Amino acid sequence: MNESNTTTKTYRLSRRKFLAASSAIALAAACGPAATPGASGTASAAATAAATPGKPLKIGQLLPFTKVYAELGNSMKRATDLYLKQKGGSLANRPVTVIYEDEANDPTVGAQKTQKFIEQDNVDFMMGIVATPIAYAVRNALDSAKMIFIETNAGGNALTRTTTDCKPACKSKYIFRASFSSWQISNPIGTYFATKKGVKEAFTFVADYGFGTESAADFTNAFTAAGGKVTGALKAPLGSSDFLPFVTQLKAQPTKDIYSFFSGTDAINYIKAWNQLGMPAAGYKMNGAGFLTEQDVLKEVKDQANGAVTSLFWAVTLDNAENKAFVDAYQKEYSLLPDVFAVQAWDGMQAVDQALQAVKGDTANKDAFIAALEGVKFKSPRGDFSFDKDTHNVIQDIYIRQVAVQSGAAVNTIVDKIAGVTDPGK
Amino acid sequence: MRRLGYVAGALVAVAALITFPVWTSGWESSRYATTILRDMLVLAIFALSLDLLVGVAGMPSLGHAAFFGGGAYAAAIASQRLGNDDLAIGLAAALLVAALLALAIGIFAVRATGIFFLMLTLAFAQMVFAIAFQATDLTGGSNGLAGVHRPTFAGLDFNAPDALFQLAGCVFVVTLLLLWRVRTSTYGRALVGLRENERRMRALGYDTLRLRLSAFVFSGSLAGIAGALSAYALRFVSTNDVGVPRSIEAFVSVLIGGTGTLLGPAIGAVVVLYLERVLPSAIPFAETVLGIVFIVFVVAARQGIVGLARAVWSGQMASRRRAARATR
Amino acid sequence: MQQALNGISFGALLFILAAGLSLIFGMMDVVNLAHGAFYMLGAYVALTVVQRTGSFWPALIIAPVAVGLLGLLIEPLLLRRLRGRHLDQVLLTIGLSLVIVDLIGLFWGREIRSIPLPAGLDHSVTVMGGDYPVYRLFVIAFGIVLAVAFSLIHRSTRMGALIRAGVDDAPMLAALGVDIDRLFASTFAVGAALAALAGVVAAPVFGVFPGMDVDALIYSLIVVVVGGLGTLSGAVVGAGLIGPADTFGKVLFPQFALALIFALLALVLLLRPTGLLGRVRIAR
């Protein structure tokens, strides 16, 4: 008995040490969130030397920093930080603190971080959300908490529409969208194809999830309404690793114009498979919603997407003063070309900035701030920017773009423009 | 005497838990703390249900989220389709759907053991996930089901966040009591027998297959209740609620807290949720920290937190006894 | 048909991926849920190698060696004490994969990357009336070569005999004086290296991005369990079944594409509870 006591004693002692060490770490970390609410990410608070600064402004940004959409979150954070840097860290004379939280591609996490913004950080307003399911999930929480929210990516149509029973979501007076609705990037191109481009038949091939099916539906409606015919539809599960089986099927059918919606890794793999199976040589044409050939995709596939025609509200080659300034500033700061997600975040900040100026920084009066946001109107890197007063979705120009290689980099060149596209709201 | 002390202590703890929002209302960000604690309670109930399978009956399952999510969808869809927000209806729907799912899956899965059982549960759960993802008309598909109403019950409205927290707290306490009774009952002992030596149980005349199936269905139904609570608390259900990561979350909570113990899974749930959701706001690389915590636990605290606590406690008792003996 | 080739090339990829897991599972009785993380690490290392050297081929050696060394470190330090304790292995390897994946994000960033097809293999040839990418044919060939090489080692060398004996009865092997610790450590390292190799081979096709470990892990688990644990032929059979099934499933039943593989797994396990070629383990 005695021997086991001595041996177990030393054993337990080292266990105690572990316990003590780990509780010390946990305690140190636990003191973190409560004591320093701005500890995550960069707190870009800097009081300007000019006039006496107003009360600090807290913005909550919910973006993905882990999992599959992490690149988008990083891009949008870069744009946000750059904007604030250019403004000296203040908007409407209020020093700004941005609190970034990770949505981790999980609506449960997104909902919880939204609660944190509302209940713990007491942010003045919220921005961000990349994944549509997360936006849908927190819509009601935002609405009941009267938290003003500027959506800077998620394009699910329902977020800014009137729907029956508010399913899967519906517009809210507190929610604005500075990015796009999937209708805006899928419908006009449908009409354009049938009319201006004279395409008679098309085949749709999209990712099998909310965004993909919405895009295919909107394109099909517009295309058929304008006299075209959709000869078939194919869907690939989201996150498919292997696109060869699908492109093989595409090649086995006669319609040459394929309309697609994919983004990120799916788009990259799709474009690679497209080339490997010799689709361009066989006369097939790749078309789609803009994310199919956005910069994050093009930087990896390079010239393999040449000739693809897509519709989006921006392209890095867009020739206007604001875009040139934006691209130059972004490149200078980060040595990277910006992508559309950066533009969305940038415009979100611009809208917020203008509205704040209009109300002289008073975010306490929510109705006035909302009215100011509704009245926002400026020239953004994408062209003219304003919100629809009814749906709070952005009104913007849609460009028809074509992929080409310029100065060694694959980019989208502007081929045509459809001005002032407004989401129908129903 | 000590018995009375334990009971009194337990009562105080329960009361403190349920009235948490009240006595913390003075804290800054108490509202958020309540929300977090509520989510911890939901995960705790989920983990407790899984432990019945993993810890007590010795059937490690990686597909438990199928029942959690199934219950969540059931409660949400029931209240929407029937237009009735009654809590009883929601919970009944969740219980029914989860139990049926567990039965359907269990009939096939319990024939296997060990790693094969693990894989089968994973496979079936992924099938449920696929259905949830594809059946857009029923489940909202990849966009999930938002706009779930808070339940009502006998005139009480659970819309206030505190009310739902207290509901979760009560269900948690009831679950603990239920599992405590089960573990000390003959049925519970039979499950432990399953874990320790199934062959002997069979030799003793137990229908082990039926025993396993009953454990599977029981634990699945409990997970369904947790799912319903989650649907009410978050007011939406997403496909993430039936996915593998959710199953792993519960699995890991059970392991860290201590398998086969009563409070272990609950404590594990608190730790895991804290590390997963609260810590990332304060430090970067919280995932690395999470991973390291897992590794440290396996290496240093095999029996989980409860085991560690027990070791420390009995160490103290032993040294106290030795001191008493020495002074005699 | 071209789809058949697609299925076979996917199957070849799955084989390379699953072979390592089958080895670790079958021989060491270790549940290794960090297999996907090793796969991911291999792909990212290959990314750096391609960036630095401009060539794909060195990556085929460097990545597996690097990850294999990591495995050599992990086994004695962390896994050795967990012999036979499956639940603990699950928790440990989950923790390991979280750390590895997060550190990958720290080191390499979280953007979506890809590796271009290696020069020489980046064109397509006409096969049965249609174009088919040469690289996919290379993958098939590579898989076959690997399978043949392994089966030779397995059957005709001392190492292979030791492995076969270890799968059958490890304690007995230890009793016979074989240094089990060293054997297991090297087996784990080889398993990890194989996962990394699969990552390198797959990278030009599937891309390199955060979250790639999850799918890899799930697919490799399915292949290993379907094929039967511990036997190399099990991995071949499993991959040979799952690869084409997945491909044809996507083509023929797009509605159920997600669920089809799992339904297949469930079906196989129900009919043959230890996998198609699995053998009943001697109870310890």
Secondary-structure map with pairings?
The complex is a heterotrimer of chains A (426), B (328) and C (284).
Chain A: H1 2-35, E1 57-63, H2 70-86, E2 90-91, E3 94-102, H3 107-121, E4 125-128, H4 132-145, E5 149-151, E6 175-177, H5 182-194, E7 201-208, H6 210-225, E8 229-237, H7 244-251, E9 257-261, H8 264-276, E10 285-289, H9 295-301, E11 309-312, H10 321-334, H11 340-358, H12 366-374, E12 377-380, E13 383-387, E14 394-406, E15 409-421
Parallel strand pairs in A: 1-3, 1-4, 4-5, 5-6, 7-8, 7-9, 9-10, 10-11
Antiparallel strand pairs in A: 2-3, 11-14, 12-13, 13-14, 14-15
Chain B: H1 2-18, H2 20-23, H3 30-56, H4 65-82, H5 87-109, H6 114-134, H7 136-139, E1 145-146, E2 152-153, E3 156-157, H8 161-184, H9 186-196, H10 198-203, H11 208-234, E4 236-237, H12 244-257, H13 264-278, H14 286-300, H15 304-327
Antiparallel strand pairs in B: 1-4, 2-3
Chain C: H1 2-28, H2 35-53, H3 57-79, H4 86-108, E1 124-127, E2 130-133, H5 134-156, H6 158-175, H7 180-206, H8 212-227, H9 232-252, H10 257-271
Helix pairs in contact in C: 1-5, 1-7, 1-8, 1-9, 2-3, 2-4, 2-7, 2-8, 3-7, 5-6, 8-9, 8-10, 9-10
Structure description:
The complex is a heterotrimer of chains A (426), B (328) and C (284). With 426 residues, chain A is of the alpha/beta class. Helices cover 42% and strands 22% of the residues of chain A. Chain A is built from twelve helices and 15 strands. Chain B is an all-alpha fold and 328 residues long. Chain B has a domain at 30-244. Chain B has helices at residues 2-18, 20-23, 30-56, 65-82, 87-109, 114-134, 136-139, 161-184, 186-196, 198-203, 208-234, 244-257, 264-278, 286-300, 304-327; strands at 145-146, 152-153, 156-157, 236-237. Chain B has a two-stranded antiparallel ribbon with strand order 1-4. A two-stranded antiparallel ribbon of chain B has the order 2-3. Chain C is globular, with a radius of gyration of 19 Å. Chain C is built from ten helices and two strands, in the order H-H-H-H-E-E-H-H-H-H-H-H. In chain C, strand 1 and strand 2 (130-133) form a beta hairpin. The N and C termini of chain C lie far apart (48 Å).
